[in-house]
Design brief:
It contains eight helices and six strands, in the order αααβαβαβααβββα. The chain has a single domain, classed as Rossmann fold, CATH 3.40.50.620. About 35% of the residues lie in helices and about 10% in strands. α4 links the parallel β1 and β2. Bound molecules: iron/sulfur cluster. Iron/sulfur cluster binds next to α7.
Length: about 230
């Protein structure tokens, strides 16, 4: 039985070329994330989806100001911290989100029996892929260049492996700018952020970390640095 996602088989014909995306990304350098979200909303309408990890609700806060009905998805791997699930509930209470909770198949792999790459493929990548292929031409994430050296050149507008447009409105925002906006706008924050977790994923794979290297607490002690969502 194959438990990994099969992105190649699910690709749809891209409406955008890589050079289209690169040109649009260059146009948005230095712009406020709200401008990027407004453009994406106008360009893709109801075929735009927002993938939220609920480490905070910054991207949600900015997006619902543009479109209160935006399709927000949360991938419930079955291994989230209680604090993360509580942050989802707080966000629902504040924003009345149009939220879809994506869950893995009953036969999904787990990290202990199948390893981290297969577990992430089965519990994160595959559920998001099913949702995107059925519902979206473009999706947004909270990915930022400050997250890690691997993300240092992340574009604001990109194409993913499926040929869908991937929009990272926060890519160019510094940690300082993010923290200022969160404070000024009373944005919801996962309480684990105040307990030494600058990046928050599933509990088996997340440890407290150096705030200057936020993702170093994810899959610590292994070569793995990404779950596969951002390919
Ligand atoms: S982060 Fe860990 S527990 Fe979560 S899906 Fe990936 S390997 Fe599995």
């Amino acid at each position: 039985m194959t438990l990994l996602a099969t992105p190649v088989a699910l690709r749809t014909a891209p409406r955008w070329s890589p050079s289209d995306a690169a040109a649009m990304s260059a146009e948005f350098e230095g712009c406020h994330p709200g401008e990027v979200i407004t453009w994406a909303t106008e360009e893709f309408g109801s075929r735009l989806c927002l993938s939220a990890s609920f480490a905070d609700t910054l991207l949600i806060d900015l997006a619902v100001a543009v479109n209160p009905d935006i399709d927000v998805v949360f991938i419930d791997t079955g291994f989230h911290f209680a604090e993360t699930l509580a942050t989802v509930r707080r966000a629902m209470a504040r924003y009345s989100l149009n939220l879809t909770v994506l869950r893995p198949a009953a036969t999904a792999a787990d990290i202990w029996n199948h390893g981290a790459d297969t577990c992430c493929g089965s519990r994160k990548v595959a559920p998001l892929e099913r949702h995107l292929v059925a519902n979206a031409d473009a999706w947004m994430s909270g990915l930022r260049r400050d997250d890690s050296p691997q993300r240092a050149n992340a574009p604001i507008v990109d194409l993913d492996l499926r040929g869908l447009v991937k929009v990272n409105p926060l890519a160019g925002w510094s940690t300082e700018a993010i923290e200022r906006h969160i404070t000024d706008h009373d944005v919801l924050v996962n309480p684990l952020s105040f307990e030494g977790y600058p990046s928050i994923g599933c509990w088996p794979c997340t440890q407290p970390a150096d705030p200057n290297d936020p993702r170093s607490g994810r899959w610590a002690g292994s070569d793995k640095s990404e779950c596969g969502l951002h390919q």
